[in-house]
Amino acid sequence: MALFSSPPPAAQLGWRWPHFTATELSCSCRKHCKGEYFHDPRFLDALEAMRRDVDPLIIRSGHRCRAHNTAVGGVQNSYHAKAIAADIAVTNKDRARILQAAVNAGFTGLGYGRSFFHVDLGPARAWTYPGALGLWVRALGFDPMRNPLKPQKQQA
Ligand SMILES: [Zn+2]
Ligand SMILES: [Zn+2]
Fold it and tell me: In this predicted model, what pLDDT tens digit does every residue of 47-104 receive, in sequence order?
């Protein structure tokens, strides 16, 4: 794991995650930094695992430099700022599939938003963003805050 001031060339990182790039997971502020990027192979492995069940998997936000995280109202200890997290675009149609894929892939930090789903590999925890829980409950048919989803056995 390492922090870079801008996305390094793929070869330098031994890039082996075909569906993602360091650039799309780097800070997108274009103001406070030059595309700060936090490299964590374990996180990328989990994203690739998730991508097998969710195609396309659209990253709205990856790593954020501290200044950008503050500017967008992110909490100070956010995994977007201290390491790497991703906000993945969701619609009502694919909430159930995206949640199950994230849990199966081993993501432990889950943030339920209206139009995005936050995933990280921090301590196991879950939270909702304003106005989002009802959308998730309706799409899933259960309340994921009360009944956390368990990983599904993958078929061999
Ligand atoms: Zn930045
Ligand atoms: Zn997030």
Answer: 999 999 999 999 999 999 999 999 999 888 899 999 999 999 999 999 999 999 999 9
Tokens, residue 16? 């082996």
**Domains of the chain with CATH codes:** 2-140 (3.30.1380.10)
Task: Report how far residue 54's alpha carbon sits from residue 133's, in angstroms, rounded to the nearest whole number.
Answer: 21
Rounded distance from Cα 84 to ligand 1 centre (Å)? 13
Q: Which of 82, 67, 152, 90 is nearest to 121 (CA)?
A: 82
Cβ pair 22, 52 in contact under 8 A: no
Q: In whole angstroms, what is the distance from residue 12 CA to residue 148 CA? A: 38
Tokens read off for 95: 């909430």
Ligand nearest to the CA of 38: 1
CA distance 73 to 77: 12
CA of 77 to the centre of ligand 2 (A): 11
